[in-house]
Amino acid sequence: MESFVTPLLPLFERERAAGRALALAINLQTAGSTYSKPGALLLIAANGDYAGLLSGGCLEGDLKERAGAVIAGGAPLRVSYDMRGPDDLLWGLGAGCEGAMDILMMRVGADNDWQPLQALADAQRTRRPAAVGIVVEVEDAAPGRVGEVLPLSVQALGSDFAGWLPWQAGRHLFALSPALPPRLLLLGGGPDAPPVLQFALLLGWQVTLYDHRPAYAEATRFPGAEHVLQERPERLLTALAERGLRADDYAACVVMSHHLESDAAYLRALGATRIGYIGLLGPAPRRERLRALLGPAAAALDGRLRSPVGLDVGGRSAAAIALSIVAEVHATLHGRAGGQFHGG
Questions:
Q1: 104 shares its domain with 214
Q2: Which pairs with CB-CB distance under 8 Å and at least 24 residues apart come from 318-324?
Q3: What are phi and psi of 194, to 5 degrees?
Q4: Is the residue at 342 inside a domain?
């Protein structure tokens, strides 16, 4: 449920519109503890601007230096970094990440139809998954060249796939089928809703804001939102459908109108959807009042309703509450409980 493509798109669109080629760096494989995992992407412009991260800034400076040659010469470059133990000092990086990373850098420009980024950007825009294979190794006398981009079947790979594939005629591909960014539905546009949007946008999510009050359902209050809709609560599913949106396409929803009858109407509608995460702002007694208003229809929310919404991160400000909400949604979408991180 995490897209490595979304953060790259503003820089890609800027440089493509200007006709300037870029360097795309792809994390092919790792060993030990590394900041990113295979499939992570870094996009570098000729002027040194970059988007995405492969490390926490440890490698990006060196990759920026190499990007100029890749953009100018067009030939792909394979580079490996090993930061395990004292050898890290040979790079002058002093990162101490205790991991190794193998990276392919390739030119993306008009001469190769801006692939693979154009295909991946189109997938994000249309919400139709795309899969591509990038030739990384070519055996002797085999046809093709390193850096060649081939379309692949999303159905064969599945969504959110990144890994190696053997290919015919001695070519070895690194395949990418990036996850589409999750969609978040915010039901209620009060003063505490914009911070939720801001945290969600930082994660690359696509957000729809829905409220029946004209003063709240104002697009200027929610810059970056995919949709800002002003409709009555009881028309939620119909209003979405009228705009070509399906409620079931949203990964999560947060009910936060601060209006009891409106929240009841929202919850009644959400019970008929398959949205797996439904957060409800407010204390437990309010939740029980809403369940009483819903009557038997409340059973449709069992196992999905998170109330009070959010992780216990402390703080009472709108920003702290938004952080707790988005953190819980993020953890749930990744199958995590939201405890202390112990991974490598």
A1: no
A2: 318/191, 318/192, 318/195, 319/195, 321/192, 321/195, 321/281, 322/192, 322/195, 322/196, 322/198, 322/199, 323/195, 323/199
A3: -55, -40
A4: no
Taking residues 287-304, report their average pLDDT. 97
Q: Answer whether 312's CB lies under 8 Å from 231's CB.
A: no
The pLDDT value recorded for residue 94 is: 47
User: Is the pLDDT assigned to residue 284 strictly greater than 90?
Assistant: yes
The backbone torsions φ and ψ at residue 50, rounded to the nearest 5 degrees and listed phi first, read: -145, 160
In the chain, the percentage of residues whose pLDDT exceeds 70 is: 92
For residue 344, being part of any structural domain is answered with no
Task: Check whether residue 126 and residue 239 sit in a common domain.
Answer: no
| pTM reported for the whole predicted model | 0.85
| Closest by CA position to 242, among listed 255, 264, 227, 258 | 227
- 160/196 same-domain check: no
Q: At 190, is the secondary structure helix, strand, or coil? A: coil
pLDDT at 2: 63
Structural tokens at position 60: 């990006």
Three-state SS at 141: coil
Instruction: Please compute the mean of the pLDDT values over residues 259-277 and round it to a whole number.
Output: 97
Domain count, the chain: 2
